[in-house]
Amino acid sequence: MLRLAQILDGQLRGAMARAFPEAAAVAVAEGRPLDPQLAPASKPEFGDFQANGALPLAKPLGQPPRQIAQAIVEQLAADPAFAELCLPVIAGPGFINLTLRPERMTAEVAARLADPRLGVPTVADERGEQEVPSPVVVVDFSSPNIAKEMHVGHLRSTIIGDCLARVLEFRGHAVLRLNHVGDWGTQFGMLITHLKQVAPAALETADAVDLGDLVAFYRQAKARFDDDEAFQTTSREEVVKLQGGDPLSLRAWGLLCEQSRREFQRLYDRLDIQLSERGESFYNPYLPGVVDDLKAAGLLVSDDGAGCVFLEGVSGKDGKPLPLIVQKSDGGFNYATTDLAAIRYRLAAAPAGDGANRVIYVTDAGQSAHFAGVFQVARRAGWVASQVRLEHVPFGLVQGDDGKKLKTRAGDTVRLKDLLDEAVERAEADLRRRLAEEGRSEDEAFIAHVATTVGIAAVKYADLSTNRITNYQFSFDRMLALSGNTAPYLLYAVVRIAGIARKGADAEAGPPPAAALTYTEPQEWALIRELLKLDAVIAEVEEELLPNRLCSYLFELSQVFNRFYDQVPVLKADEPARSSRLALCRLTAGTLKLGLGLLGIPTLERM
Ligand code: ARG
Prior knowledge:
Blueprint: H1 2-19, H2 21-29, E1 38-40, E2 49-51, H3 58-61, H4 65-77, H5 80-85, E3 86-91, E4 95-100, H6 102-113, H7 123-127, E5 136-140, H8 152-170, E6 174-179, H9 187-198, H10 214-227, H11 229-243, H12 247-271, E7 276-277, H13 287-296, E8 301-303, E9 306-315, E10 321-327, H14 335-347, E11 356-364, H15 368-380, E12 389-395, E13 398-399, H16 416-438, H17 444-465, E14 472-473, H18 476-479, H19 487-503, H20 522-531, H21 534-544, H22 547-567, H23 577-598
Parallel strand pairs: 5-6, 5-11, 6-7, 11-12, 13-14
Antiparallel strand pairs: 1-2, 2-4, 3-4, 8-9, 9-10
The protein binds arginine.
Arginine binds at residues 140, 143-145, 180, 182, 339, 342, 361, 363.
């Protein structure tokens, strides 16, 4: 409906300019051309859209708004392209309600049936200039820390980040999916020192020791660090050696990273996530340049020996501006310095950088202040051109059923692998129960495939379907339920609807032409209107980075479909209603599939 809305917007603007040439000219000269204020209708009985632009003109024109609306509608009526598209009605004090003509909507349905993108344009289509490469969008997500626990927060970042990347890719942006792993912190000093003593072979030969649980070694090292001074000193020296490029330290570091990387990759494979690793260490050579730049820009201040930039508009308890520290008093750099170097690199034109014009960071809301500070400093340093968007996409905490931080029964941190295993096991148990109830028998390969797909989908969907800003309660029971706004419900809807479409497909060949489609029932129109929202929903997610909007849409669509299917015969209807309704089934199944795909959820043929 987005394209139709754009066409309508243009027609309304033209009509306003013709109805009120002087006012329009003045408005253009002032740089704020008359705006029809086109928006989706607030209620279905008002039609598809409403234009409220007549009301604010009442004062400057000295006319009642209804009269203004009338003049606009008269101009619209004189535009044959408009008359073919829409039916206008003036309502209330001067709103223009617009109802799309049925033939136009039917044509839209036919066009979508014949289009694998279901009518969603790419950014290049919109610009109408295929030749120009699409702007680069960086999505910085997942980003766990080497040797440290990869926790549910990283899982959320991974799932949400992947969905945003999929939506942006589908819209035709050149997306760089970056895994900003923490591979350069002080943890390596402790870890290397500890391993040198307890498992030296691990630092020299790959796979010499079973390092499967690097996290356990890290925990031991951390415990020693906290109460052994000599260990602390050696660890610090070890970090300096590593950052100074000592070949032995670098080799040990490389092996440790490799080990973690393999663990992470197993999870990404299970979740079907593509990521390019570009960890913090990548930016190491660029850190001194960041400090030099900030100095040159006159932003760097020395505070107790530390190099910092005082933030504008951010003050501490004492009312003094808060600093963003970029160089510690011992000369070392930190998380913020690395993020500044990363921004600089990502925004710099290729080949010296990524040439990005939008950078999206998916992390927990706890890092909001960090990103606000880093973005502000980057802007003040002059690294951020005016059209560039730097966006932090924060999300809330993952809580257990009890509303507290998610933990195992024994009180430990939940391992992500265990969490996914449990989702799949429960999905399998549910499936076996259902098969027994329905007296169906299926082979083990089928059961394994369905259980894996449903289990993983449930975890992803539960995360994506809540507004990411709020904390989210993790509940296997809720996410695996076959009813409600869940993955199993939607996956089941796809199977059922695609099945209906298939059943009726025998006599048909290819998508029907618009002329063959006829719709008469309100339930059909309600479904068509819902189907036609897809492009607007995707554009909204692209803009606002809220995957839950797409989830709500898919859920709503399947409900509108159910109403249609309950109340209107499909397979038993006479032609041409039968084929026309089957076409709606096909388009609904296709829309659900496409939407779930953008959420990172593959669909099933049967379940
Ligand atoms: N490694 C960080 C963490 O575990 C997340 C990194 C996010 N990305 C960034 N550019 N700072 O919290």
